[in-house]
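Its record is retained below.
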Amino acid sequence: MKTQNIMIVGVGGQGSLLASKLLGRLLLTKGYDIKVSEVHGMSQRGGSVVTYVRFGDKVYSPVIDKGEADYIVSFELLEAARWTEYLKPNGKLVANTQQINPMPVITGAAQYPDNLAEKMKAAGIDVDAFDALSLAEQAGSTKAVNIVLMGHLSRSFDFTLEEWMEAIEKSVPPKFLELNKKAFMLGREA
């Protein structure tokens, strides 16, 4: 199998590392060679965080270069816009429509850009943007946005629902299992 590239992008504290762990577990059980690389910006202070997940028959490097990502999963709209140059021409961007103000916006030095999803679509990007935060709240916790997004991404792959659920069971603590399964299904059906 040709190597596939997925970038998971967001702001520190949104759960991108759990999302990459879940995805990595699933891919390993399917027998793929997988490389995962986490790049932290000022994640402790709400800065940009990106995780690269590469899988295929044989993967030699964990890094995804510009123009190589098959998928970008974004936990926040501005982060989605920040990383679009990494998408392949036929790549897909799955984005949460939530907006988290970066420090320049908080301090009044800048404004959060308007209509980002529409602007990315107008630029020819295949954008699938939806309100993952509301679905996470419906599942029982705003912290489940990451699993909602993984549920939505799951529709792009041939893995069974049972395989995804098994990966969730191995990735989250038992006390949060039902909440995460619900979040995954809400994302998958969105």
Summary: The mean pLDDT is 93. The CA atoms of residues 121 and 127 lie 6 Å apart.
